[in-house]
Design goal:
alpha/beta, disordered N terminus, globular, 9% strand
């Protein structure tokens, strides 16, 4: 579409030059242009124009550019590191940009055992992440506490923050993390992003249309 937009100014300039420079042939050229305007099919711009909903376009951008916040707390973090390596290549899904600053992330991957001492730090980092944001509980420990039924271990990170995708395993393999990432992408593609983020603006639109 950008290529089509860039071609139009050049096309207009050529037309103006022909009209003003060719005095005798200007009328015939205008008649020729009038005939070409009647065409209903232009192969140059076919396939460059896409009609879609705003939510669909926004969700497509978001699901293919997830920036993970790696909360590696135990052995699941090793599998998370392997997922970013060349053998599994999480970059195929647009999620290779791992940032250790919550201000730059939109999906938190909790990988490992969450103790009560660490739980408040995890919650604080989650609250510092900008909206919209999502959470993946990677492994049995992050999902349910795993084999640690003790006073020091949090029995599931969902007791503190909302979880979008649970990944089973102790620890899960990188393929399982990629499968969970694809499940999250499917969930994002079904969201009503514009209404969720700007409900007041949506209400104004509905009132104006009604």
């Amino acid at each position: 579409m950008l290529g089509c937009f860039l071609r139009n100014p050049c096309f207009i300039c050529v037309n103006l030059w022909l009209v003003f420079s060719c005095e005798g042939q200007a009328r015939s050229y205008c008649l020729l242009m009038a005939e070409t305007r009647l065409t209903t099919h232009d192969s140059k711009i076919e396939g460059n124009v896409i009609f879609t909903r705003f939510d669909a376009a926004l969700n497509w951008v978001r699901k293919n550019s997830l920036w993970p916040m790696p909360m590696g707390l135990a052995c699941c973090a090793i599998e998370l590191m392997a997922t970013a390596a060349s053998r599994f290549d999480i970059a195929r899904f647009g999620a290779e940009v791992m940032r250790f600053s919550p201000r730059q992330c939109d999906v938190m991957i909790v990988a490992g055992t969450v103790t009560y001492k660490m739980a408040l730090a995890v919650k604080r980092i989650y609250e510092q992440m900008p909206e919209p944001k999502w959470v993946i509980a990677m492994g049995a420990c992050a999902s349910t506490g795993g084999m640690y039924r003790s006073y020091a271990t949090l029995q599931g990170i969902d007791q503190l923050i909302p979880v979008d995708v649970y990944i089973s395993g102790c620890p899960p393999r990188p393929e399982a993390l990629l499968a969970g990432l694809m499940k999250l992408q499917e969930k994002i593609s079904r969201e009503r992003s514009f209404r969720n983020q700007m409900p007041e603006l949506v209400e104004r639109f509905e009132e104006a249309l009604s």
